[in-house]
Amino acid sequence: MLRQVWRRSVFKTFPTRTAGSLTAAFLAAGSPRWSSGGLTGGFKGILHPPSDRSQRLLQPQPARYLSMASGGDQATSTRHKHTNRLAQERSPYLLQHAHNPVDWYPWGQEAFEKAKREDKPIFLSVGYSTCHWCHVMERESFEDEEIGNILSNNFVCIKLDREERPDVDKVYMTFVQATSGGGGWPMSVWLTPDLRPFIGGTYFPPRDQGRRPGFKTVLMRIIEQWQSNRAALESSGERIMEALKKGTTLSANPGESPPLAPDVANRCFQQLAHSYEEEYGGFRDAPKFPSPVNLMFLISYWSVNRSTSEGVEALQMAMHTLRMMALGGIHDHVAQGFHRYSTDSSWHVPHFEKMLYDQAQLAVAYITAFQSGGFYSAEDADSIPASGGKEKREGAFCVWTASEVRELLPDVVEGAVGAATLADIFMHHYGVKEQGNVAPEQDPHGELQGKNVLIVRYSVELTAAHFGITVEKVNELMTSARARMAEVRKVRPRPHLDTKMLASWNGLMLSAFARVGAVLGDEALLERAVQAGGFLKEHLWDPDQQKILRSCYRGDQMEVQQISPPICGFLDDYAFIICGLLDLYEATFQAEWLQWAEELQTRQDLLFWDEQGGGYFCSDPSDGTVLLRLKEDQDGAEPSANSVSASNLLRLSHYTGRQEWLQKSQQLLAAFSDRLTRIPIALPEMVRALMAQHYTLQQIVVCGQRNSPDTASLLSAVNSLFLPFKVLMHTDGNPGSFLCQRLPVLTSMTQLDGTATAYVCQDFSCSLPITEPQELRRLLLDRTAVPEAD
């Protein structure tokens, strides 16, 4: 399906093809950073990897059994020397550790009670199944018999999947970042029996390396300190947690208003422009991440500043970044999709992990660039080389040697200069070299030696000129070559696929299918969006308890399974699904999705809203095992759930007429006023919500039969434009419909002469009725040229 959209020549610019590709292919692929912390509390100098994340996909694939450590897949009939409690879990990450020589417990009361009963410290290890450095630490330390005995005899060892329990992960990551200056996964934290952290870090090598303490040394020192200096450890941890409780409090003063949107947006643009890397696009130096929230802000900023140099610059920054990513090695040119991040500034050599939420957000970013001019979660970075061997290697599934390319593409191309073969043309275009195209400094473990990561080195026009053939011929040849290479990759050992399904990331993907399908008028993508919405409601919604469930799992027979008791959803699960449902309604005009969005918002308010300070807590405040009541204050690899909620509340207030939701949106933004004013670059998605409050939303009402061609034509005119501050509604004249019940004024809007008719309203004033799609498009363009502030 990805390739299908790339082939659609009717869409003239690459952002369209890329957006369609991202929503159509196998979609697996936050703002992480490198830092030089390590263990807090006296042991320094441990390098921990970038803080990356992974995600979930809705539809099942052929089963692979996840009983092997280090991300490997292996039949469940394998005999193991060790088996621990994690063998009874459903999380692929926990199952990867089920045969470690460590007495692992899952997060829960059994482990907590054991720690209190035996008065032992807790060792909490947090990661996720497609995390490269999590695999490394497992191979080096958790499979080591000696280290396993030290852990089991002196600690209560808990293994946590951060994707299942992001609330727990956030608490202890906040501690690690506050005490070490950085964070990442795997995360290693030592707790008192009452769950208070006293020492934390990330990845540790198994043995000492010069001045860097190994994991065994760290364990022995903690055991010694626990026995001889326990009171000081506990007191220090207590002081830090109290400071964190105060330092992480976000609230609005009574009567406080949100900051002025134009000032905040201008400052956010200036901060992004300062960090922008002009040659290859993107922000800051390597490792370089896609950062879709930044790109969406820049395009939105342009939409209200089109006539200014800053607005033009913002659009150029976003477009250049998207273009360079599409050309780079971070883009999988054979199977499509984008890898997690680039290890260099030119987007060439990626970390080969693919994440669903990257695909979802980038699909929206690319389709937005075009307008402006259930899935599985994640695919591992490591896989077994095609040449054989048991050891997994970074990128083995994706890279190529020059000899492989020559063997696969030997055909002489008729008319090409010098009797060039298809391999010659492909290698020229994609930068394939005989000795490999990965610099040694980008390959510290030597796993990519002699290998090539495909990156577009020349335009199609230059490649055509170099070989004396037409541009059309080059496109045809490259399509054929990529198809052959895709077939070869199918028989290579695949990377591990994390098959648990998370509500939040499927909500993001729901938005992607709905928005891309609407812009392209692609019924297949819209049908996938409807199926995704149905999957969420069937498998990740508990109608009896009226709660979203965090996750579900693929069984051995491809059935969808749930654990008992299930994990209840967190704020991001609600916020991302609600956003997806609103996008699905605007794409299909099926009111059932709007109705469910209204119900979910009501539940979200009840579960997570802070009545005193405004805004939403990340998790249920009544859970006593979660020590900090946090409000996510950064738009990173995923947007903050509070940022998304600010927009959801505003959109829903227009759909339902419920003014309390408009007020809640304003209170939420006021709670984040200080951060929005000082460092808006940390919250670009929330800045977009603030702009939406300032530039009053347009209400575009289409009156007509939902599936009629004239209604579709008006809808197509709306979807051809990027209109960041609008809601799109449909009425068929039925006064008993969901929307007419909420907004009785819609009953006064009727079709002209039986033809589908549009009305564009803002500030309680509506345009004259419009029946011609081009006239509607012109009106919307005129209104977006100089937006009016409220």
UniProtKB/TrEMBL annotation:
It comes from the Eukaryota. It holds the Pfam family Thioredox_DsbH. InterPro entries: 6-hairpin_glycosidase_sf, 6hp_glycosidase-like_sf, Ssp411, Ssp411-like_TRX, Thioredoxin-like_sf. Transmembrane segments: none annotated. Residues 83-245 form the Spermatogenesis-associated protein 20-like TRX domain. GO terms for biological process: carbohydrate metabolic process. SUPFAM superfamilies: Six-hairpin glycosidases (SSF48208), Thioredoxin-like (SSF52833). This is Spermatogenesis associated 20.
